Amino acid sequence: MKKDSTKIALVTGGSRGIGRAIALRLAQSGFTLWLTYKGNHEAAQNVKSEIEGMGGVCELLPFNVADYEETEAALAEKVETRSPDVLVYNAGISRDNLLMWMTRDEWDSVLSTNLDGFYNVTRTVLFSMLKAKKGRIVVVSSTSGQIGQAGQVNYSASKAGLIGAAKALAREVGKKNILVNVVAPGFIETDMTEKLPKEQVLPLIPINRLGKPEDVSSVVHFLCTEEHMYIHGQVIGINGGLAI
Ligand code: NAP
């Protein structure tokens, strides 16, 4: 039987922003995309069309990463027959508020999407990678998870949690030829940062510009594809010097 040489990348939150750029970059280098998102069908369909326009293949998988049953229903059967070569855990939200005013819902929604979602997706996919004895996992954390950010106690906690989870997982699965790394972007121009007061943020960034989604996707692509790879369990800041 002919060996299936198609490489598959599962990118969560691939319909917009950073996830979209990662999906396009991986599609450019020949990956078939399993592209997940929550509910923005139009944005997801646009990414799929862009990928098909460059001759690639993209399957759309809408589900809520915060919901374990939904995640399992969307992914478990697929990974029984084929392990993804790459998992990028990128889906995430922010609900900013000072802790003093933060509602329980603002706390819960951010933790459940950003951190529980990582468990839900990775737990569902990992066994297939272990069986395949190969894989690359890249987790999208944030500078906020490294140094904390006022008004983002929920978000910073979730993103710091991802760093701890990814480091622990790296220790568990390194011997199985599964490499796990984290990228920690600073301020990147996407829907999430649309309302950010640029004039207040720019003075904090030594290279004097906000990042673009492509600044992140280039690094994720490297981590997912480079053959000579000895980077494992690391956190790579992509922040223009915001945190040095
Ligand atoms: P974005 O433009 O708001 O896109 C978020 C993506 O996540 C969308 O595809 C969205 O799907 C998906 N998503 C959100 N909640 C979901 C859920 N419950 N289930 C499934 N998918 C869900 O955000 P972004 O700025 O590209 O951020 C992407 C990642 O980078 C996030 O983890 C974020 O925390 C992180 N990050 C961003 C920045 C920044 O400055 N932008 C900095 C550091 C880290 P729909 O389109 O269906 O809503």
Question: Which helices and strands appear, and what pairs or packs with what?
Answer:
Blueprint: E1 8-11, H1 17-28, E2 32-37, H2 41-53, E3 58-62, H3 68-81, E4 86-89, H4 104-132, E5 135-140, H5 143-147, H6 153-173, E6 178-185, H7 198-201, H8 213-225, E7 235-238
Helix pairs in contact: 1-2, 1-8, 3-4, 4-6
Summary tags:
15% strand, alpha/beta, binds NADP nicotinamide-adenine-dinucleotide phosphate, 45% helix, Rossmann fold, 7 strands, seven-stranded parallel beta sheet, 244 residues, 8 helices
Summary of the model, kept short:
The chain is of the alpha/beta class.
Account of the protein in words:
By secondary structure, the chain is α/β, with parallel strands linked by helices. It has one domain (8-238): Rossmann fold, CATH 3.40.50.720. Helix content is 45%, strand content 15%. The protein contains 8 helices and 7 strands. It has a 7-stranded parallel sheet with strand order 3-2-1-4-5-6-7, with helices on both faces. Helix 1 runs parallel beside helix 2, helix 3 (68-81) packs parallel to helix 4 (104-132) and helix 4 (104-132) packs parallel to helix 6. The N and C termini lie far apart (51 Å). The relative contact order is 0.14. NADP nicotinamide-adenine-dinucleotide phosphate binds next to helix 1. The site of NADP nicotinamide-adenine-dinucleotide phosphate has 29 residues, from helix 1.
Number of strands: 7
What general outline do the C-alpha atoms trace? globular
Succession of helices and strands? EHEHEHEHEHHEHHE
In terms of per-residue confidence, which ranges show pLDDT below 50 for 5 or more consecutive residues?
none
Q: What's the CATH class, please?
A: Alpha Beta
The amount of helix comes to: 40-55%
Instruction: Specify Rg, calculated over alpha carbons.
Output: 17 Å
| Main β sheet profile | 7 strands, parallel
* Order of strands across the main sheet: 3-2-1-4-5-6-7
Strand content: 15-25%
Average pLDDT number: 97
State the end-to-end CA separation: 51 Å
Structural class: alpha/beta
Instruction: Specify the CATH architecture.
Output: 3-Layer(aba) Sandwich
CATH superfamily: NAD(P)-binding Rossmann-like Domain
Ligand inventory:
NADP nicotinamide-adenine-dinucleotide phosphate
Per CATH, what is the topology? Rossmann fold
